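RECORD TYPE: protein structure
NAME: Oxygen sensor histidine kinase NreB
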Amino acid sequence: MHAAFFLLLGASLTRFLMRHPGEARTPWIIALSITLAVLYLLGPVLGSRPTPRRLAWLGVLVLVWMVLVVLAPSFAWCAVPLFYTGLRILPPRAALALVALLTAFVVAAQLRLAEGFDPNLVLAPPAVAAVATAVFVHMQRQAVRQRELAARQRELIDDLLRTRRELAATERREGTLAERQRLSMEIHDTLAQGLSSQQMLLQAADRTWGADPEAARRHVRTATGIAERNLAEARRFVHDLAPADLAQGGGLEAALRTLAARESAQAEGALTVHCHVEGTPGAPLPDRVQSALLRIAQGALANVREHSGATAAGLTLTHLDDRVVLDIGDNGRGFTAEPATVRGPDTVRGHGLPAIRARVHQLGGSLTIESAPGEGTVLSAAIPLAPTALTAPEDPA
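PREDICTED:
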């Protein structure tokens, strides 16, 4: 539009100089043309807001152009760029009034140049003004829509970024809680149980030290063995490795037999633990399934040793086509069992049966507890071996 203005201004001045050379008004036409060009150049410097300075500049610009049109009607077509200048600066009603005024001057100038009345000279300028105004209004509305769309997009992007930050914070909190749960279960099933056994053995050694030194030394040696195993568990626990019994090789079956023998030895005749394996696995069990089942057996036998008063307990590992089942039974005092439902990790405190439920839940399995007062207890953990069942969040143990 700026280029069109200067092109029309130059063409109008050239036409005037070619048709009216040497006239007395020529210096005024040249001076006013230069003034109009300089004023137009000052427009971008003043900005686009309708400030008092900007409105004064527009008034002077239109006034100089009107004087030029009065002196030389050929400058009338410079009005088209002035239409857009007024529409861009003034409010809608004032801009339309300015367009009407400029159109009237153009019509008058064209009639002065014509030798007779020509309807086209009366109708063409208003039509051009109407088209120019319509184009400007359409462009302005499109610009407003684009700004609104850009604002909505910015809001959506801000919402997305805020949601991603909140999601990341939630995932960090959930990860922290899951890690705390894992740590509590690991400590309960390994170090805490070992420390409890050591405490009982050392207390027994203290009671029998004077009457039966050999039995006391045997208790101390057993406690020392437990301390060594706890140290190995702690080192593997720090490095997030498999349980110590699994790390010795032989797989889950060997680890369960070792666990049964150790529990029997530590009880010194008060509790006998047997281990039995049925069936053969079609494929090696995943490491995390083996770790979880061993931890379940450790936690269940710890409950038997500390709470049931049982004299015999059994570990039965059954390999089926689609799942592996671990049964832990005892002949203790039993208890009134609650409905054996697998609870979500949010209800788990990380001790005893809740920890066992959590491990089974993480592997997509089911836990069943059968018990009654005076009739012992049987705990059965069934873990599915289908690929989809083992895609649950992995237990780091």
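COMMENT: The longest helix spans residues 119-208.
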